[in-house]
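User: Please run a holo structure prediction.
Assistant: Happy to. Please share the sequence and the ligand.
User: Here you go; the ligand is T3D.
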Amino acid sequence: MNAEPAVLLDIADHVATITLNRPDRLNAFNEAMHAQLAQALDRIELDRAIRAVLLTGAGRAFCAGQDLAERQMGGDTAVDLGATLDRLYNPLIRRIARLERPVLCAVNGVAAGAGANLALACDIVLAARSATFIQAFCKLGLVPDSGGTFVLPRLVGPARAMGLAMLGEPLPAEQAEAWGLIWRCVDDDALIAEASALAAHLATQPTRGLGLIKRAFLASADNSLGEQLDLERDLQREAGRTEDYREGVLAFLEKRPPTFKGR
Ligand code: T3D
């Protein structure tokens, strides 16, 4: 029997598109999906020709978080959820944060639990107007994971973050945009076209500069202003040595559009 892959990876025109592909389970994470997503990221990390990543889901949902069928209680062997975070979810979120290429998420439908926080771990989040974000963890007696307790208060402030985490109510995409949780909410039938166009645009931009922006933002969470100013100096020095910087300045002075090579 030929099982459908749990993750699809398509690479074209310098854009890698990853599609979570368990639509009948609302793209909930099982072991196979984790393994295949990790393989897709291995491939992307190694291929410097990939200059932007687009993550989305197949079917009506983006991702319903952990596949709870894999957590069926029975017998006396309790799953160590700390171990599954260490082994699966935490490396995934760290890899997206550290990948020095822009990662765009097209949230095509409900994003619940770790699915919501996977989306929020991406650099730019577009969502279909009908999509919702649900911090479903509290309904199971769990804590928001996959970076939720880190990004939520930073993105929407502690009051809204706490309400989302403790009530677990669906947050509609329009509200998510209004609260600053995501970049933009778009009409459902425009989502894939808009996300693909944005990914294509990002793939033509100064990739190393964009990667350094990610590095700076990531570090800012732990740094004082002084440390961050020093880091900006170091990163700007690095950015100033790229071919793309030279091209950007030349193109500006020559009054022509730049052609960035990502190096
Ligand atoms: O475990 C660890 O390693 C720790 C890490 C935890 C991370 C987490 O993500 S914990 C949070 C887990 N996720 C949830 O609690 C969300 C559960 N799902 C839902 O609350 C709802 O399904 C949704 C709100 C997402 C969507 O609701 P709705 O009404 O649109 O769809 P539905 O009818 O509930 O779901 C459709 C099918 O998908 C259904 O199966 P069926 O009846 O057609 O055979 C449903 O059981 C299945 N499904 C949805 N979510 C999950 C799932 N199956 C397994 N696991 C799921 N998470």
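The mean pLDDT is 96.
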